[in-house]
Fold this protein.
Amino acid sequence: MSTATATPPVETRTPTTNALTSGRLPRWAPWALLALSWLVFIVVFAIIAMAGETEFNIAAALFLGTVLFDILIFSVTYLVEGARQARDRLVTSLVATAFIIALLPLVSLLFTVLVNGTARFDLAFFSQSMRNVVGEGGGALHAIMGTLLITGAATLISVPIGLLTAIYLVEYGRGQLARAITFFVDVMTGIPSIVAGLFAFAFFSLLFDDPGIRFGLGGAIALSLLMVPVVVRSSEEMLKLVPNELREASYALGVPKWLTILKIVIPTSIAGITTGITLAISRVIGETAPLLIIAGFTASMNYNLFDEKMMSLPVFVYTQYANPGSDVQPYLDRAWAGALTLIVIVMVLNLIARLIARIFSPKLGR
């Protein structure tokens, strides 16, 4: 007698949707909406500028585009993902809007300098000086060389002093002397740049008994007064971030303290120290008042830091803008080109600092 085996019924499951993952915008959607919002207002402001109503305003275009993005991201998210996600994205976009608003002055500055500075950003500008040039032509080679020489000398003076001071404060400094150094570093941080120039001028005038002394090394001394507190503060904070366990492990192996600082502490914090030094250079490379007082200005080349007046890029920009000839436009073009060159130099210095930090920072294993 055979027994029939009953086949169990096949269950048909209907696909379920997860309310937390369904109806999600793709990751590129916010970026696309932001780019679209910016593009809309850039086109609008460009049309207005071409109509001759006003000049093109990149800051206003980006600001209004960001506001439009806030509206669009909330509306699109509300339609696709619901009210809860829409509120979340709106708050996130408002935080991003605050960040963009903080960057608008920098963006406007870079845009203005780039637009106005490219007119004379040519080979002649980087290969000629202003000697015997009146009106069109000429260049800023003498100012570029002066800026590099003066800032380089200031860096050679400031970095050893600032770094050694920071090492003393972190590794050795205790008691009244350390507190006094910290106090005076804080005071030096707030010194106006023109006071540093006046100090250097008075010092060298008394030293050489020459009330009309002007030379590049004096400018380097003045800039070093402004650089030292920045180097001290940034290096001190970076040295404090080095874990004490690394120092204690080195001491446990019998390594003396000076060698521990040289081989363990400084290499561990070299990335932050390099960044701080770059910030200090960027702080002083655009100073005009101290160099105008002690380094002076000239239209000729001068490679000697110890003799005669030496031009720098900030002073070059100031003199071209403040003392134009009968034809104003060539002087303004050279001033804008000098400002653009100064920005490019600072950008190159930051890239070099990042490269140095990446090369010399300690390689940690996984």
Observations:
- The chain is about 70% helix and 0% strand.
